Amino acid sequence: DFLCISLVNGFTQLRYNLGDKTVILQTLQKVHANGNTWHSLNAGRVGNEGYLDLDGINITQKASPGMNALDTHTDFFVGGVSSLNLVNPMAIENEPTGFTGCIREIVINNRELKLTVTDPKGGANIGDCDGTDCGYTVCKNNGTCQVENSGFSCSCPREWTGTRCEQSIHCSQNMCGSHALCIPQPSSFSYTCLCALGWTGKYCDNKIKFYIAKFVGNSY
């Protein structure tokens, strides 16, 4: 079994195999190779149906009925592979070459991979594509980063504030205690305080007693 995303003659291609035959999906439009345009690519499979979406244009295709599980226990590679022996011959159309370019963000199963030196298992020929203080996801929540003489500044969407757009405007003047987490409530232009264990009240400023069950010996 495998799932592979690659560039073939300028087109993005998704190939996956659930144990029967290889399903091939290819985008209708080419990827701009001039290096000045960011593209958004969503690809994967749900059950036996694969999907490939480039900049909002989506195509899907189903594998054989009954084939709906992807069995993968190998490493996940980005940009290239350490050995061609790790690649199923059906996973690529031609002999593969490594990817040269920029990748801004990778999310797998709703978990963002940190594109840093220390987060992956290993890497080679990798550098900061941006090369400025704006770097990698400096501004949170869709904020726009601008390079300044002193470093950088973030231009935030109207719902967010802070030096990195990390704080909701609804929590900017919150009265939650130090043992609480502010949860914004945009629909009511307000917030609620989520209390840590042992604290209660609207602002989590009232201490309460609580007891923990203790087990000894052969308890069950």
UniProtKB/TrEMBL annotation:
What biological-process terms (Gene Ontology) are attached?
developmental growth
The segment(s) forming the Laminin G domain are: 1-129
- Which Cys pairs does UniProt list as disulfide-bonded? C102-C129, C156-C165, C176-C193, C195-C204
Gene3D superfamilies the UniProt entry points to: 2.60.120.200, Laminin
TM region(s), chain numbering: none
Q: Which UniProt keywords apply?
A: Calcium, Disulfide bond, EGF-like domain, Glycoprotein, Repeat, Signal
Q: Which CDD domains match?
A: EGF_CA, LamG
**EGF-like domain location, by residue?**
130-166, 167-205
* A Pfam family hit: Laminin_G_2
UniProt cross-references to InterPro entries, sorted A to Z: ConA-like_dom_sf (IPR013320), EGF (IPR000742), Laminin_G (IPR001791), Neurexin-related_CASP (IPR050372)
This protein's name: EYS protein
